[in-house]
Design a protein that fits this description.
Blueprint: E1 2-10, E2 13-18, E3 22-27, E4 41-47, E5 50-56, H1 57-60, E6 73-79, E7 82-88, E8 90-98, E9 102-103, H2 107-112, E10 117-123, E11 126-131, H3 133-136, H4 139-146
Parallel strand pairs: 2-11, 5-7
Antiparallel strand pairs: 1-2, 1-8, 3-6, 4-5, 6-7, 9-10, 10-11
Pfam families: CheW
Protein name: Chemotaxis protein CheW
GO cellular component, one term: cytosol
């Protein structure tokens, strides 16, 4: 069975996600930082009236934080955790892969990547690590970031 994947680059490494999870691809725009966030959360953006958390995939994959530029891209995805954005260096391609082309992730790599990888695939002489969006971001993290804020009391009250 053929499946399509959106491939993208982070620190020179190719990754991919199931194209059916991708809602939108946007150029990077400055996000609103939130205090006390962890797990690679850079902040949130307002996307047509909806608050969308933005995750820096470099941090989620145990690398240094991305110093974003106008060349960076945000991939808006929908997974079990909800709708959120992934900050990546660049979007590469949409590839169609057969299940027989997918290789299991070696156990040592799976441990290092915290179980975020589902499979490895080779196409056009490139190795692509396929990400499991449901394991990448926890539902409670997205829910907490999407929750309406408690209004601040007016100082005069």
């Amino acid at each position: 069975m053929q499946r399509e994947y959106l491939t993208f680059a982070i620190s020179g490494q190719d990754y991919g996600v199931d194209i059916l999870s991708v809602r939108e691809i946007r150029g990077w725009t400055r996000e609103t930082p939130l205090p006390n966030t962890a797990g690679g959360v850079r902040g949130v953006i307002n996307l047509r009236g909806q608050v969308i958390p933005i995750f820096d995939l470099r941090i989620r994959l145990n690398a240094e934080a991305t110093p974003p530029t106008a060349n960076h891209v945000v991939i808006i995805v929908e997974a079990r955790a909800g709708i959120y954005g992934l900050l990546v260096d660049s979007v590469s391609d949409i590839v169609s892969l057969d299940e027989t082309e997918l290789q299991p992730v070696p156990e040592t790599v799976a441990d290092a990547e915290h179980g975020f990888l589902t499979a490895l695939a080779t196409y056009s002489d490139r190795m692509v690590s396929l990400l499991d969006l449901d394991r990448l971001v926890e539902a409670r993290t997205v829910a907490a970031l999407n929750a309406p804020e408690t209004p601040l009391l007016d100082a005069a009250e």
